[in-house]
Amino acid sequence: CVNSVPSWSRVGVPTIGQCKGTLEAVKAADIIVIFHVPLFTKWLKEVMGGGTRVLMIIDAPDDLENLLSPPGLKEAVKHAEARYRATREVRVTSAAGTDFSYRTGDYPVMSQWGYADEPGHFDHWGAGHIHTFPNEGSAHGRVVLAPGDIIILPYCRYVQDAVELTVEKGFITKIEGGLDAKLMDDWLSDHKESPEDMDPFAISHLGWGLNPQSLWRSIAQNGDDPERSRAAARTFPGNFLFSTGPNTQGGGKRGTRGHYDVPMRDCTITLDNEVVIERGRLVDPAMVVPRVRIL
Q: What is the pLDDT of residues 202-257, one digit of tens each?
């Protein structure tokens, strides 16, 4: 049992730890299999710090079969993790108008390959991606969410009209566009704890997907039910995963629930002046994993 109802659209909800004995029980376990989103919670960091493995399963049964980690995915993710860890400057561009840069190194690189086989490791069945949090105040430039990009949190929908974001010193300072821009601004503004609170507009985890079993078109095929879009939509190969809000998962201090998760298509990602993804296509051969066809 958990002490509050989990939410698909919010992160950081402390579902474990307030009921007597629950935190002690999960800390004593070798592995936890969890069926809701525990990310950005204090209890998750605490139990992982003690060596407990955590596997999150939140996708539909047939998706779990299709998204099962293929041979070579862990190795590709580990390779990408090592490259990202050695990087100090990242630039992301796109034909849609994105020209966005940030520095890295102050926060750990986090990786998922679909199963929790190492002590203290968190993973998500169907995952296959890496991310880190930008150094504080370093993110700047222009981010354009183009039609076909995916809003995983909080709405679970394809972007319909371009959203133009201005990022300065680690925060979004301007949101321009039509309906999708209004939805984004409304969600983030609604999670401000005071008029001066800008934490929901901060840049959060940034990274990219590598799982060949994940398909960008999953929402078009299965509808916009969150249970049909969790892993496939955010880990398809070559996407740039842009997000806003909290950074506590990486050791930061922002615990806001104003979280936006957007896998972007067709971006070029440059690590210290070396292109690893070009217009949404993985160009580092060590990151490319063959897809397994499910009959």
A: 999 999 999 999 999 988 988 887 767 778 888 999 999 999 999 988 889 998 98
210 neighbors 128 (Cβ within 8 angstroms): yes
Give the angle 122-124-129 at the CA atoms, nearest 5°. Answer: 90
At 104 the three-state DSSP class reads coil
Query: Residue ranges per domain, the chain?
Result: 60-287
Q: Considering the entire predicted model, what is its pTM?
A: 0.90
Cis peptide before 226 (omega within 30 of 0): no
C-alpha 105/C-alpha 271 separation (Å) is 12
End-to-end CA separation in angstroms for the chain? 37
Task: Catalogue the long-range contacts made by 179-182 (C-beta closer than 8 Å, 24 or more residues apart).
Answer: 180/145, 180/151
What is the tens place of the pLDDT at every residue in 53-77? 999 998 888 889 999 999 999 999 9
Quote the strand ranges of 149-259, DSSP E.
150-151, 157-158, 163-168, 171-177, 206-209, 240-244
